[in-house]
Design brief:
The protein is α/β, with parallel strands linked by helices. It has helices at 3-37, 66-82, 100-106, 113-125, 208-216, 232-248, 297-306, 309-312, 315-323, and strands spanning 53-59, 87-89, 128-130, 134-138, 141-149, 155-160, 166-169, 173-176, 188-191, 196-199, 221-225, 251-255, 272-274, 280-283, 289-295. Strands 1, 2, 3, 4, 5, 6 and 15 form a 7-stranded mixed beta sheet that branches. Strands 9-10-11-12-13-14 form a 6-stranded mixed beta sheet, covered by helices on one side. The longest helix is centred in the N-terminal third of the chain and has 35 residues, at 3-37. Belongs to the carbon-nitrogen hydrolase superfamily. NIT1/NIT2 family.
């Protein structure tokens, strides 16, 4: 073999190795870019930098005394923070009994007494606090409103319940929130160093389109403060959570008040966390308690890679069919 020909082969081998190395890095970069585009990674973090974080759901026993509700809620927030929770959530109507007859009596402006307490305890504990919901008065209208506060006590988001709870199940339950409440007209999301969170309140969870939009906008966790009842709770509470989680490949958490058999509206309880595979990973009973779980975004990323429905959607077809 001539020496010149030998050198040419070496050069070709070196070039081939270099090209292969560059292609490998390009594919890896492309994969991470696609995952970022589909909301797998929060805050532009790469896969190796994603860490699990602790979520706490406070299933609070709610009484007719607002000051007691606020005091107990703040105490349980402190307890959750002491146990390592970085994101803490309270239930729907955590400061008042739930019912159309109570909304006007307990309604507050925002900022007001309840939200001031939430802001203070979020700052004291240096956590992200989802303040369940309270009856809000604004401009002569009443809303069922969730507020979110950051570790500095600043208001990060305010979500007004979009879908009002108007149902009639003959012989079991009839309820009409629209008798006293007005609906919100916007979706609410907020960013944390851990993940992006989408908010809904109770009945909002029944509407798959809302969760789908949150997923498309990059949310990895949906939180629904809610108060399903003794009719809809055993039938649909967990079912809906698992459906929203699997459909959108994200974590879903629900936060209920504790069950009070003497209340005019008896809540189902069973605050729950479901992972993107549809598995229940944490669940309360009916009593007052705090539910803890670790939200692992590596698990979410793995599921989205294994079953890549986010990149397989036929949005070009869905819109056409809807117009037929």
């Amino acid at each position: 073999m001539k020496l010149g020909y030998f050198f040419k082969l070496c050069q070709r081998g070196l070039v081939g190795w270099l090209v292969g190395w560059l292609v490998g890095w390009f594919v890896l970069l492309l994969k991470e870019t696609v995952l970022l585009d589909h909301g797998v990674f929060p805050c532009n973090l790469r896969y190796s930098e994603i860490k699990a974080f602790r979520l706490a759901l406070i299933q609070l026993h709610v009484s007719a005394v607002k000051s007691d509700n606020l005091q107990r809620a703040c105490g349980l927030v402190r307890e959750a923070s002491a146990k390592g929770a970085k994101l803490v959530a309270l239930p729907e109507c955590f400061n008042s009994p739930y019912g159309t007859q109570y909304f006007k009596e307990y309604a507050e402006k925002i900022p007001g007494e309840s939200t001031q307490k939430l802001s203070e305890v979020a700052k004291e504990c240096s956590i992200y606090l989802i303040g369940g919901s309270i009856p809000e008065e604004d401009g002569g209208k009443l809303y069922n409103t969730c507020t979110v506060f950051g570790p500095d006590g600043a208001l990060l988001a305010k979500h007004r319940k979009v879908h009002l709870f108007d149902i009639n199940v003959p012989g079991k339950i009839q309820f009409k929130e629209s008798e006293t409440l007005s609906p919100g007209n916007s979706f609410s999301m907020f960013d944390t160093p851990y993940c992006k969170v989408g908010l809904g309140i109770c009945y909002d969870m029944r509407f798959a389109e809302m969760a789908q939009i949150y997923g498309q906008k990059g949310c990895q966790l949906l939180i629904y403060p809610g108060a399903f009842n003794m009719t809809t709770g055993p039938a649909h509470w967990e079912l809906l959570q698992r459906g929203r989680a699997v459909d959108n490949q994200l974590y879903v958490a629900t936060v209920s008040p504790a069950r009070d058999e003497k209340a005019s509206y008896v809540a189902w309880g069973h605050s729950t966390v479901v992972n993107p595979w549809g598995e229940v990973i944490a669940k309360a009973g009916a009593e007052e308690t705090v539910v803890y779980t670790d939200i692992d975004l590596k698990k979410l990323a793995e599921i989205r890679q294994q079953i890549p429905i986010l990149s397989q959607k036929r949005c070009d077809l869905y819109g056409v069919e809807m117009k037929k």
